[in-house]
Amino acid sequence: MAEILLIDDDINIHEIVTLFLNNAGHTVTCADSGAVGLDYAAHNQIDLIILDLAMPVMDGLQTYEKLRSHPNSRDVPIMILSVHQKFELDTEILQRSDVCFVSKPVDMDHLISAVEQALTRTA
What are 5-47's pLDDT values in tens digits? Predict the structure, then answer.
């Protein structure tokens, strides 16, 4: 199915999201920081990026901007995964057509549905 890059500093999120998305037929690679995710995205073909906003050193917004500036990840759809509710985030990133939003704690059925929708939009 799809190659998905999960950029999140929470190992528990890595485990649960990977389990459910693998069971849905996708391949998930996890990065525990924006820098690691950027490096992976620069050297690999991916279909979707799931990105946490609250990370140390390089937060999700900074990571998003760097992903969009690299030719290999410029057009890859991004799903924001955050503990905040969408209405709490006053940021233009959520207004962009290449971004969708899922809140934590993650409802896995909703996440899988959102992943499928994001992948369909780019197909």
Answer: 999 999 999 999 999 999 999 999 999 999 999 999 999 999 9
Q: How far apart are the first and last CA of the chain?
A: 12
Is the dihedral angle over the CA atoms 109, 112, 114, 120 positive or is it negative?
Answer: negative
H/E run at residue 38: helix 34-43
User: 0.70 cut: is pTM over it?
Assistant: yes
Contacts of 11 (CB under 8 A, 6+ apart): 32
**2, 119 in Cβ contact below 8 A?**
yes
CB proximity list for 100: less than 8 A, separation 6 or greater: 77, 78, 79, 80, 114, 117, 118
Please state whether the peptide bond connecting residue 56 to the residue before it is cis, i.e. omega within 30 degrees of 0. Answer: no
Least confident of 74-78, 93-97, 108-112: 93-97
